[in-house]
Amino acid sequence: MNVLLCYINTLNRFYDISTVEVGQHFYWQIWDFQVHAQVLITSWVVTTILLISTILVVRNPQTIPTSAQNFFEYVLEFIRDVSKTQIGEEYGPWVSFIGTLFLFIFVSNWSWAIFPWKIIKLLHGELVAPINDINTTVALALITSVAYFYAGISKKGLAYFGKYIQPTPILLPINIVEDITKPLSLSFRLFRNILADELVVIVLISLVPLVVPIPVMFLGLFTSGIQALIFATLVAAYIGESMEGHH
Q: Where is the protein localized (predicted)?
């Protein structure tokens, strides 16, 4: 009963987190639901950029790679190495999933650093990069949760749930809470770091609008890539842990 109450409380916290607002928001009213339209718009833009770039590169691969083809091949090899290191020899089926998360976060972060979404004026609210909204990071984290539960169950079947009573049944509540809080940790880590970088740039631009923000924005490009790498590595580590068992 205590474990069930803890799980319900955690879900309630996720709902409360989804109501967090930073800046001005543009909403679409769909039946009884309010949708953060500015996040959907910028997410579609990022997804379109990724799809078009991939189609252009994959459609006609060259024997002597172009710079774009070199970039995608480098990213693929990089994600393969990360996946193999964290998951092991069964990493193959998970490369596309981990790579998609990495590229979406990477392009989302760089789109904000390179293109200032907020200069596009809306009737209400303002455009922001997808990762600058807690709803996006929570959604990515919940997708990750589904992935590592699926990875463990698909490999071990119902025996997967035996890890919750290892090394002793006394640890059952702690092991359950650990799995439940993983998405919370992932979503807050990514959202907090990206938001902090944005606030630093905004403050510096308001204080010294010409010189100081430029190197900080270049630093933001670097940290944005690091955040995408950290998220992808943690996702791979969680999947590898679920497939190998409780450590």
A: Membrane; Plastid
